[in-house]
Structures are given as C-alpha cells and as structure tokens.
Amino acid sequence: MELLDSKVSQGSQDYTLTQLYSTAYEYTSRAVKQTLRHKLRVTIKSDSYAAQCFARISIYSPEERKWNNLASIEHGLMQTAPGMCHRPSAPTKFDYQDDINELLRLADLILA
To answer: Cα(67)–Cα(88) distance, rounded to whole angstroms?
Structure first.
C-alpha cells in the first residue's frame, strides 16, 4: 500500500485524520492473472464527545464516482483517544496509528 496523502484537520471540538492510499491486488481466474488497483481513504475523528468519534476506511468506486464504506471500528473499540481537541498540542498521525493499522488490516482481509 502506498500512502498518497495525510492530513489532520481541526474542527470546533474535534480533530480528524484523513489519509489516502493506493493499493493493488492480484487475482487469478482461469489461469489469467489480473491486477486490480484501488484507492482507499482512512478517516478517524476524535471528538470531545466519545459517541461522536469514528474510524472508517472507504474504497473509491470510479463507476459511481463516490466513496463506499469498506470497514469501520466502533467508537467504544477505538484506540484513538476522544477529546484530543482539549490537549495543549495538536495530535499527530501517531496518535491515530493503532486504528490506522487495524483499518488497513481489515481492508486487506476484505480485498485480498
């Protein structure tokens, strides 16, 4: 998987990490090998209210020209801390790393 873009944006009471990835999977069908390329988007929100936090990974559909949800982590199971907007310093991608890894693992299981 290749990381194309990564940013952390601040809202009034939240921080949201967005990352874009490019990935390729090889499939063999009737002795014909194909490589399918996908664009994936990881979105993780740390809100001051825990119930409004979320972590999800989406796949881009060029036919539909939209992002479709591929997998998510319930806010109660997320490792990213809620309320990061109340910290004295802005979060970095390392504050989100455990959930990033889990979402990429789930996407790999689904697409492989």
So the answer is: 33
CB 23 within 8 A of CB 1: yes
- The residue with tokens 């997998």 is 71
102 Ramachandran zone, left/alpha/beta (phi>0; psi -120 to 50)? alpha
DSSP 7-57: EEEE-SSEEEEEEEEEEEEEEEETTEEEEEEEEEEEEEEEESSGGG-EEEE
**Tokens read off for 40:** 């994936």
Is residue 56 within 8 A of residue 45, CB to CB? The reply is no
Give the tens place of pLDDT for each residue, 82-107: 998 888 888 888 999 999 999 999 99
Q: What whole-number distance in Å separates Cα of residue 68 and Cα of residue 79? A: 23
Asked whether the whole model's pTM tops 0.85, one would answer: yes
Phi, psi of 67 (to 5 degrees): -90, 135
Give Cβ neighbours of residue 109 (< 8 Å, ≥ 6 apart). none
Tokens of 30: 């009737």
